[in-house]
Structure formats: C-alpha cells, structure tokens
Amino acid sequence: MNLNYDVIVVGGGHAGAEAAAAAANMGSKVLLVTMNMQTIGQMSCNPAMGGIAKGQIVREIDALGGYSGIVSDVSMIQFRMLNKSKGPAMWSPRAQNDRMLFAATWRKMLENTPNVDFWQDMVKEILLEKSRVVGVLTNLGIKIGAKAVILTNGTFLNGLIHIGEKNFGGGRMGEAKATGITEQLVALGFESGRMKTGTPPRVDGRSLDYTKMEIQEGDGEIVGFSYKNIPKPSKQHPCYITYTNENVHEMLKTGFEKSPMFSGRIQGLGPRYCPSIEDKIERFAERDRHQLFVEPEGWDTVEIYVNGFSTSLPEDVQFKSLRMVPGFENVKFFRPGYAIEYDFFQPEQLKHNLETKLIENLYFAGQINGTTGYEEAACQGIMAGINAHLKLQEKEPFVLNRSEAYIGVLIDDLINKGTKEPYRMFTSRAEHRILLRQDNADLRLTEKAYNIGLADEERWRKLQQKIKEIERVGEIIQSTSIAPEEANKILAEKDSTLISQKVKLHTLLTRPNIGIQDFQEISAIEYMYKTYWKESVEQAEIMLKYAGYIQKEQEMVRKMEALENIKLNTNFDYSKITSLSAEGREKLNKIQPETIGQAGRISGVSPSDISILLVYMGRV
Fold first, then answer.
1. What gap in Å lies between CA 431 and CA 550, rounded to an integer?
2. The overall pTM is greater than 0.85
3. What pLDDT band is residue 522 in, cutting at 50, 70 and 90?
4. What confidence tier does 571 reach under pLDDT thresholds 50, 70, 90?
5. CB atoms < 10 A from the CB of 530, how many?
6. β-pairing, 48-50 with 4-10?
7. Of all helices (H) and strands (E), which one includes residue 138?
8. What is residue 90's predicted lDDT score, i.e. its pLDDT?
9. All domains in the chain, ordered by first residue
10. Nearest to 48 by CA among 232, 293, 221
11. 11: nearest Cα among 474, 269, 426, 377
C-alpha cells in the first residue's frame, strides 16, 4: 500500500466522507481510514436527512460541490418541505432515506472519486514532528505519512454504550470503540470532555398495527436537496404518527432507578433538543402524551425506527413500555435503544478553517467538536477537507461568514462560544436567515466553490443559466399588468382586497398569501412557467416579494463587515489591557480572535470590552 498521502481522514462517517471527497476532488491524494469499510456513510441514528435548518445545511453542502445532497436524493423514500406555511426563510427540506441504500451510495461515490484510497484499521496515534502533523500510526502498527490529518471520530473516542445497568465499550452497537487519540491529545494540551447521545429501539414493522396510527404522506412535489438533476423516486413510503400515554409513562418510571442517566453513571451531557423519552417525561411531567414518529428504514426492509423514543432504560422496561403504545401492542424488537458516551474536544481550540491551534495541519470535524447531527458533521467535514487541501497548496483559508451560510454560523458559534452540550443547528441561531434560505444556497456558494476548484463545470453552467432566468422572470413580473377580471376571482378566494383597475403583478405579490402560482392561467405567467425552470420563477418571486426585508438584512451585513475588517494580532496578550473585564481578558487570550467582529461574538466579551479594544487601537 501507499504509505504517504497529502491528507489522511480518520473516520468514515458523514464528516469523514465529505472531507475525503472535498480534498480529493480539489486534487489532494487522500486516504480514508475507517474501522469498518461496511459502515462508510452509515446513518447511525434516524434514517433521515434535513429538517429545520439542517435542510439548509444539506443544500449548502450540495452548492459547494459536496455529496450529501446527491446521496440523500438517490436514497430518499419520502420528501417533505417543512414550514411551508411560514416565510421562505423558514422552509426546510427533509427526506426519509433508505438506510442501506444511503450508505451504499456514499461508498460507491467515494470509490468512484479519483484520489481517494481506503484502509480498514484503527488510528491510535497522530505522528508529529515538533508541532506539525506528519502522519498516523494504526492499530496494526503501520505508520502512514501525511501532510495533513482530519479527525472525524464521531462517537468512537472511548465510546461507552449504556443499556440500563449494563455498559460496555463501543462506538456504535456492534462496533468497537477507538482508543489512544484522546489520551495523546490531552497530553499535548488539548481540553477534552464527555458528551452523550442516544438512539431508540429498532422494531419489526410486521408486528405493528398501522390502523391505530395517523398516516404521514410525503409532499406531492419532490424538490429534493441537490441542485443537480438527480432522478426522484416515482413513489413515496408513508410514515406514521402515534403517541405515548400515561400508562407508558408509569411503566417507564419503573426503570428510572436503573437508568444510567438518573443514577449518574452517564457523566456526559446529552442533546437538549433531542432528549430521551425518560428525560421528556421527567422534564415535561405536565404532559400526558408525547408524539412518536414511526419511520421505515428503507424500501426492502421491515425494520422501523421509533423516532421520539430514544432511551437507555433496561431492555425489558423498553419492551413493556412500547407495547402500551397504540399500534405497538404486539411489537417485536430488533434491538433495544441505548445511550453512548464519547470524548469530544472544545472547539474553541480551533481556527475558523477547523485547523487546531496547537498542532499545525491537524483538523477536527464533526462530533469530535461537540456537535450532533449528520448535517452538522457533514458540513464541518467538507470545510475541513477544503481547508486541508488549500493549506497544503499555500492558499488562503476558505471561511464562510455568518451572512453567507448556515455553515458559517455553525463554525463561528463553535469557535467563539464553545459548547457544553451537543450543538444542533436551528434557524434561530442565524441572525441573517432571510439571506440564508434553502432555495438560494447555489446563488450564495457555488461561485465561491467553483473559484477554489471544488464545484464542477456542470454546476457552474447551471448557476449561470439560473441567474439569467431569474433576471428575465423578474423583468416579466415587473412589467406584467393584471386586469380586475383576471385577478379578482383569485383575490376573493384568498380573502384579499379586490382591485378596480389594472395593476402590476409585482404589487399583488407583496400581499400575504398571494403567490405567482395563483396566476398561472394568465398568458404571460403561463409562458414563464413553460419557458423557465420552476426554481428560477420561485427565486425571482421571493426576491421581489421580500425585497424590503432582504435589503434591510444586507444593510445590516454591511455595517457588521466594518468590524470584520478591523484585524487583531492573533498573538496578543490581552492581560496588558487592564481596563478589560477579567472574563473578557481570559476569553480573548484563549480564543485569540482575528477581528474585532469575531471578538464581539465571543461568549463573555462584553460590548464595553469591544469599546475598550477600539479605543486601545485608536479606532474611536
């Protein structure tokens, strides 16, 4: 085997797969080291991609030239656009996926990517010269050289699985934990911690009574994630909804004394926004039921994922409780739910390009940084892969700011604030979310990715065509007039004020609940839909309908950019500025921000601290 590479990626999950693909597609020679070649790109928890804010991230990964959107579209069994009743800033694509097809597609795409090699083994040590990466040492005793290493270890670093009073080492059920790396990094001065996550039981769908549940169908129109023309499924698989009840809750409580979470055997903090079922009934005692989503794992399996019933209670308590849920009276288990504890490293120890501050050319991506979720991991992976390649080419880092992408928000939050619990992305975390919509990720990011050599010619040509179409559609909308006899019937149906004379179409579109699709029978609009891509029409409509809001956001961004342009010395001793608050000095010395704007986003740095810094620099 080749014993020297440009980039070694450790771990084959969502972060590792995107990192390997990005670095390889940009021209680096990449080795993906994984403990199990059969689980590359595996969905360790729920068989779904996207959702609130997460769907925006998948579209951003796709716009950059990543693979997650394509894999999700190829393997989807159901698609829904969430929050359609709200404004477009909140629309979020979500897909149920065929778990086995998802992983198989990931592996196939990586195997068809030039410059990617594979090695099945455990990495137990990072090889260093002074404070720079030179390779890895595997469990088999093999030394493999590398100019850069990206760690994407997921939940495997000293992973410990809990089911009731039982616990055993593992990074995932049935797979061994990874050892050695945490101990080495801590010895080098890195700050580590423990986190936990959980997963629900998997059950036999043949044992369920779906007539006692609510059916949840997919959307009539499948939009998907990728901006490429990926064929969509001709049919969709339904999901179902059922509910716990007070009897279920009482049965669950019988296992609390054996719960590793309540007994203190689990030290790591779990995800606040995806709590276990025992945590739900403890924290929300006033509720007499909780919603469960019954999600199929694929086209050709009867395995069911019980979303909402994540638990680490004893397996017999899980079984008895679930049999009290409507539709689950005769349920058969494939395996019980469990919790897993694992090591992570505080992300404040990273630069914005995800390179560690202590070790040159060592990058962290995914759950090792304290995040949770496939999408959060994947976007860190693609950014780490991009930046590892660029660093080796002696080029400037590729960093997305908070007004350019949810990816930028996520990384900026991690670097400046760290995390005490698994970090999950929400639309509320993005102050510029009207600019960061799922529909315009390609307009925001594809040109940037094309310029650094990641997005391909097909994406670039499609983007140019879309830009032209948006401009033309905008012109048609602004020039088209609508007569009362054409508009009033539609307006009346929408409980909107009628018109008494011809008006421009764009003025009607500014009204609530009025969309361009309502006027498809008008000749100019009918022509537009026949001539241009539907996504171009939708994009032009959004830009016109929300022009005022978009302009205000852009003005706010310009004001913030003024602070981002004030550079700071990244080796400055802030303890010299005694007028700064004690916490401000501590945090500024720890993070070493690159700009005044970044300094202002650090947890513990107050507005008065920023004013003092500006005075010190002679900017006020």
1. 12
2. yes
3. confident
4. confident
5. 7
6. unpaired
7. strand 132-138
8. 93
9. 4-160+179-197+342-451 (3.50.50.60), 202-339 (2.40.30.260), 457-550 (1.10.10.1800), 565-616 (1.10.150.570)
10. 293
11. 377
